[in-house]
Each structure stands twice: as C-alpha cells, then as structure tokens.
Design goal:
alpha+beta; eleven-stranded mixed sheet; two-stranded antiparallel ribbon; globular
Amino acid sequence: MRRTMIAAAAAALSASAAFAVGPESQWQGSTALFEEAQNGLWQKCTGRWTGERHCPVSFTPDVPEARPSAVRIAAAGVLIEPTLWNELKPASQSGKEWLARRLGSDFNMNSDVRVLTIDKATAILDKAAMQGATALDVFSDPEMNKPNLYYIPESVLKQLDARYKIPAITLISGTSLSGTRFQAQALLLGNRRVEALYDAGADFVFKNSYYPAYDFTSSPRVTHVVRGRGDLSVSGLWVRAGSPPASAFGSVTIRGLTKRGQNQVFVQTSTALADTVEALEPISFR
C-alpha cells in the first residue's frame, strides 16, 4: 500500500510513545523530532539541524547508503551503446572552462568530455520510450559507471524537453513558485555521476506536475551519484509536503532515489519518517 510523506508524518505525530525509526536515524522519539522540526534549521549540506542555510559552492556530497526498505530493481536492458563515446566530438575549451566554474574542484580540466548531440540523445531516449524505461534507468545505465563524461548542452536539452515527457523530480525547465522561469543549462553524465546545472542564481522552489502534492526546492546544481542500476543518491534537492501535519517539519533533504519494480520509486530523505514510495512513469513521446 502506497505510503506518502503526509501519511508517514501524521503517524509519527499521533504516536503516544517513543519509538526508534531505524539505526540510520538520529531521532529517538516523536516529541523530540517535532520540536526539532519547529525550532531547527535543516543544514542542507551535512544533514543536521543548525543555523546554517547554504552549502559551500564546491561542496562534494557523500554517498548515503540506501535504506534497507529500498528494493533495487535492474533496468530491462542497456540504453546507451558502449560505442557511443567514440562517435562524439570533444567539448570545446570554453565549454570545459564553464563546467570548471560551475563545478569547482569536482571538475578536472584534463577530463575527456564529449558533447552529446541531438541525434545521439534522441536515439537513447527513443529506445528508452519504446522499452518503457525511466529517467532512473537512463541515468544509471552501465555506461555511467565508466570514466567517460558526456556533456549535454542547453540547446540539446531544450529539444529533448520539447520531444519527450521525462517524468522525474528534477525538471529540464519550468516556473518557480515566485514566477521566475528556470532552465537546465547543461547535464554532465559519467564517472558514476549526473550533474544538473541550472540558470538560477540561488535555490528555487517549484511545483512538479508529476508529483503535485509536494513543493520542491532545487539548488542551481543538483548532483546524483550512481549507487547501482535504478539507484541514485541525490544532493541539492529538498521537498516539503503541501499540507499539515507533514508541512510542520519544513523541507527535508532528498538523499536517494531507488527504483521499485517497473513503476515505483522509493524516495529516501534525511529522516525515515518522510521516506515515501511514489509512482514512476516511463519516458514517453509528447
């Protein structure tokens, strides 16, 4: 039975006795958790309650382990051909310099970065759509474990956004709750990472039509680290349920996404009370 963030938080608030939510959690009782939620500020880099709101620009996330309740399911097949790398041209020096400015010490200027063209990108997503694969399947394809780096520029992302529906918590483009448009300027994939780089100058809050019950907050840089097939850790994303009692906890950090079966995703957060299982739709044509 599907467990939402709101249902999980409501159960915690109504508990009359102390509980332990698991060895990975620092919280030992519902009263303590509620007080922390009301009075604390969630420090988005370290996952602790502090007075700090922002991460260092060059912050490199650790890779949290998936919770035991996350059932890992492998994708049906390979989506990115191993020969693709040799068919692509290297990124320009100016493009690599831009990546270095955005990623700081996490990017090596000596890396061999290749540009994914629109024809090659559509070949991947066409195959994904025909196989009923998801964005999680693409981002955790075996090719992502190799040191090869694939650079997808903004011009290609805009064309992909126009051609496909790509259900995911992160969006290629959209409008923030403040009314400002946001756009992914680039994706950098490979070496067990997926970096999404947005044109926003600061964190922005947005609605996602695939998950309308929640308000999401995104950093201008969102990092996914591949833990396995259909299994990614996340840094740079936060979520808040839109109605009480879950909204009393404020925003919680999204720490991982793990595929369950063919049509569900386990969302791991900074507290087990907010973990949830959501629908996971496949990539499709518009």
